[in-house]
Amino acid sequence: MPKTKWIIFTGGVLSGLGKGIASASVGGLLSSKYRVIPVKCDGYLNVDPGTMNPIEHGEVFVLDDGAEVDMDFGHYERFIGVSCKSEWNLTMGKVFDAVRRKERRGDYLGKTVQYIPHVIELIKDWWKEIARKEKADVVLIELGGTIGDIENELFVEAARQLKKDVGAKNIMYGHLTYVPVPYGVNEQKSKPTQQSINLLREKGITPDLIIGRCSEILTDKIKQKIATFCDVPKGGVISGVDVKNVYKIPLNFESEGISKIINKCLRIKVRLRMRKWRQLVKNMDEAEIPVHIAICGKYTRLEDSYASVVEALFHSSAHLKCKMEISFVETSGLKDPAELLKGIDGVIVPGGFGGRGAEGKINVIRYCRENDIPFLGICYGLQLAVTEFARNVCGLKGADSSEKNKKTNHPVIDILPEQKKIKDKGGTMRLGAYPALLKKGTKILGLYGKENVSERHRHRYEVNPIYHKILEKNGLILAGMSPDKKLAEFIEFKYHKYFVGCQGHPELKSSLLKPAPLFYGLVKAALDGKK
Ligand code: GLN
Asked: pLDDT tens across 328-357, in order?
């Protein structure tokens, strides 16, 4: 394909409609044939979401290069199958940072630095540079927020101008909107869509594709109505019907005729990696044996804080043909988990920070270890598993992580000397992909099927090397070490069905087509336990 094609995605009416998943689905459709590069633009002034509270922002997604990015990148990677990069998440924080640096360097010398043209040019150049560097066939730009938000105006204007730069044949605009069916009226309503498209057109963008998120498939009548009022061909309006299983969305878009619209606008051919994907979705639909996994942590009220963990469980269940049931267990103040974990087939203690809920997690871990319940500890989950093991198996009374107890006499989890010097909270962690070497004969090696592995990290603390020996002597296998053999990256307990911990976050690299090995191992052990 000679020239990069551009797809710009905006959203209207309200937030939370699933714009990220919708654009990831479109990317997924294109990705079997083309190199698709997703770009997400966020209007907030933080440079990245790394220091944001997950309650406000959902999960922080970490990339191989160590960038902490918006959780939509999770959808992109899972649907498009591409390993994303830091620059592909453009926030207003980054834009202003770059403009300010340029101004100080004297790049605008003599000029008044203005939103138009300077800021807009910078945004467009940023996008074009990605297209060039990545040799992208298709760049898929998702503009965060809802059309009409002040904070995204500059991105919208840049998106409008881009058409002039790249040529009308090389760009299309998609808009995700909401079609309510109000209670008692029982009719699909188009007004919110009309109003949101009006807002978009006021800004000079006419969409080529409108996806109407709705509890039902859109009727022909409403598609026609939206098409007429919003000035798109009727075929340009498709349903974004509510689904329980998000992996159906690309299949639904396809059957609604999205390829035709894309073909027509961009003159490219679309084909979904249909067969395997379709089969896995079918497995999920038809699965009968339920497997019940408890995710035990804090922030459990907001399930988005563990979005990738949840997805990774579904990926494995699709391959194992079991019905995934997930409960969230709040560990703050949890003393005796027996009641809460009744009927649970497996447990995950996910990543986390700070003291609150940590003792509750330790109680959960002890319960799993002593009762042979399949357990996966991720990052903080591994650290607390080591803490529990040190206290209750190795007999190291008062053993703790120095993150939650600075005065412990046995800091089995401690901050590394290198990390101690750092004061700034933003971006000071051990972030991104780190390699590890797996030990022969371990369950973990069996699951990965290779000795050299790599997972993405986001933490400050480590298993304290001083305690490696005593842990091992008591039956904890340090199943994977950093290549210099200093850091324990994976653990497993010998005398247990499945008691595994990982210092990295394997959920971040899991996808429907390639489930994360450690999640697969957990779900399989949970499933086998039922037979
Ligand atoms: N709080 C722990 C640390 O900083 C674990 C972090 C995590 O679970 N992501 O090391």
From this structure: 999 888 888 888 889 999 999 999 888 888
Q: pLDDT tens-digit profile of 293-304?
A: 999 988 655 667
- What pTM, to 2 d.p., does this model score? 0.91
Asked if pLDDT for residue 201 goes beyond 70, the answer is yes
**pLDDT tens per residue across span 247-283:** 999 999 999 999 899 999 998 877 665 788 999 999 9
- Which atom of ligand 1 is found nearest the CA of 379? 8
Q: Which of 84, 379, 394, 502 is catalytic?
A: 379
Cα gap 505→520, rounded to integer Å: 14
SS (H, E, C) 261-321: HHHHHHCCCCCCCHHHHHHHHHHHHHCCCEEEEEEEECCCCCHHHHHHHHHHHHHHHHHHC
Name the residue of 378, 403, 464 whose CB sits within 8 Å of the most ligand 1 atoms, as the mutation to test its pocket. 403
Per-residue pLDDT tens digits for 427-473:
478 899 999 999 999 999 999 999 999 999 999 999 999 999 999 99
Residue in 380, 412, 422, 503 to alter for ligand 1 test, most ligand atoms within 8 A of Cβ: 380
Classify domain 5-273 by CATH number: 3.40.50.300
pLDDT interval class at 418 (50, 70, 90): low
Q: SS3 sequence, 366-424?
A: HHHHHCCCCEEEECHHHHHHHHHHHHHCCCCCCCEECCCCCCCCCEEEEECHHHHCCCC
Ligand 1 centroid from CA 508, angstroms:
15
Q: Check pocket membership of 457 for ligand 1, CB cut-off 6 A.
A: no
**Contact criterion met (CB below 8 Å) for 352 and 365:** no
Active-site residue, 507 included? yes
Distance 487 CA to ligand 1 centre (A): 14
**pLDDT class of 150 with cuts at 50, 70, 90:** very high
Q: Count H helices, E strands: the chain? A: 18, 21
Torsion of CA 457, 58, 330, 370, to 10 degrees: -20
Give residue 461 CA to ligand 1 midpoint distance, Å: 6
Residues in the chain: 531
- The domain 286-530 having CATH identifier 3.40.50.880: the answer here is yes
Protein residue with least CA distance to atom 3, ligand 1: 459
Ligand 1 centroid, distance to 509 Cα (angstroms): 18
Q: Which two tokens stand for residue 117?
A: 């043209």
Question: Is the distance from the beta carbon of residue 352 to the nearest atom of ligand 1 less than 6 Å?
Answer: yes
Q: Is 33 in the pocket of ligand 1 (CB under 6 A)?
A: no
Query: Distances in Å between the alpha carbon of 458 and those of 62, 286, 380, 425?
Result: 7, 36, 10, 12
Q: From the alpha carbon of 429, which atom of ligand 1 is closest?
A: 4
Range(s) within the chain of domains with CATH label 3.40.50.300:
5-273
Instruction: Identify whether 379 is a catalytic site residue.
Output: yes
